[in-house]
Amino acid sequence: MLPTSLPPLSKGGHATHCKRCLSGLPSSQVDIDPAKLALSFYCLGSLDVSGELEKRTRDWEREQWKEWIWSQQTSGHYGTGFRASSYMTAKHSEHSVHDSPQIIMTYTALLSLAILRDNFSRLDRKGLLKFLRSCQNTDGSFSSEPLGGDSDLRTTFSAFAISTMLDDWSGMDVTSALQFICSCRTYEGGYGQSPFGEALGGTTYCALAALRLATKQLDPLDRQKTIRWLVQNQASNGGFRGRTNKDADACYCFWCGASLHVLDAGDLVDKAEMASFVAFCQFKFGGIAKIPGEHPDPYHTYLSLAAVALLPPDSSEGTPWALCPLDPLLNATYQTSSWARAHIPAPKVDDDDALGDAGI
To answer: E strand or H helix at 216, and its extent?
Structure first.
């Protein structure tokens, strides 16, 4: 049974918060305006995982969001992807040298369109593969943008996720990318953002999910060490900390919890205590904050809901804590990840059609 002291999960309030942020940001969050595409994913993802998308939105709104996301698809010398926002240009239709695609935004754009059940007929798949090749560095990592930008496990995971959704790995050198991931492993058992960096919960998830997407597994001793580090990061208040000896933060309930799930060790999470921490991070007017008492934002709202969806408290079925099942590797509901895997790959060419195109 659910703990009697566990407050209800305010699905409706969180859905209202996220829908409001799709229209405009409160003053406390205007600094993330340049990354609107990621923000859209967190908002849409929250509506999706809570099962509130169709209840809280109308057909014309979902179509409008689709069109806005597609207006961020941009092509150039280094291929095709999605830019972070239209804030650099006067009109959506105008693209400049400042609007080069960004790899994390491309990952979130594809998932957002899958949440909205787009058919991906406008996706430039060949250009997207060219973009991935342009972002890979000599050490196997991926830059956020062609020939520059951040280069770490976050961007590298995004490349693995995009390749998985395309069902086409020709856009990367998989062997060198895997070597880069291994080079980011630390003595604690977690993974740093880059080689020799401190182990972080978020980049540990990125490493483990990317390895699993490439059908790779940790050896037993490494797996045991990683599990130990992750379990030790669950704090006494039920939340997870992202680094050793730091305070718990709601987003790490997903990053660390999902990492344990990927390692088939999700049963080691104290799910009731984690849910209790998330419950007390809820804002009374909707949304979830990083810690109790702070202002909420779509990032922490989505990741908190995703954590609970993946690792629900016992006997949550039929209660407000029941959420849609989550695919831990792509970080989306299974319905959305299935849609992405079915509609993003290039359509299969029938043999008769191919012969006809060849004039035979």
So the answer is: none
Separation CA 260–CA 189 (nearest Å): 12
The band of 315, judged by pLDDT with boundaries at 50, 70 and 90, is: confident
State pLDDT tens for residues 137-156: 999 999 999 988 889 999 99
Over its C-alpha atoms, the chain yields an Rg (Å, rounded) of 20
Q: Reduced to 3 states, what is the DSSP secondary structure of residue 289?
A: coil
When comparing pLDDT for 70 and 25, which is higher? 70
Note whether 238 and 270 are within 8 A (CB). Answer: yes
> What DSSP letter does each residue of 45-99 carry, written as one string?
HHHHHTT-HHHH--HHHHHHHHHHHHTTEEEETTEEEE-S-STTSSSTT---GGG
What are the beta bridge partners of residue 76? 79
Structure tokens at 43: 């908002």
Q: Round to whole Å and give the CA distance between 50 and 254.
A: 15
Tell me the sheet residues that pair with 145: 148
CA distance 234 to 238: 6
Helix runs in the chain, H state only: 11-23, 36-49, 53-56, 59-70, 103-115, 125-135, 153-166, 174-183, 201-213, 220-232, 251-262, 271-280, 298-310, 334-343, 351-357
| Highest CATH level, class, for 11-25+33-344 | mainly alpha
For residues 219 and 46, give the distance between their C-alpha atoms in angstroms, rounded to a whole number.
Answer: 34
Average pLDDT score over residue span 7-31: 86
The 10 Å Cβ neighbour count of residue 284 is 8
CA distance 178 to 174: 6
323 burial level (CB within 10 Å; 0-12, 13-18, 19+): buried
Burial (CB < 10 A; 0-12, 13-18, 19+), residue 84, is: buried
CA distances from 324 to 14, 43, 223, 321, 340 (A): 15, 15, 28, 10, 16
* Cβ(118)–Cβ(44) below 8 Å: no
The full set of domain ranges for the chain reads 11-25+33-344
Least Cα distance to 8 among 250, 313, 325 occurs for 313
Contact 235, 245 (CB under 8 A): no
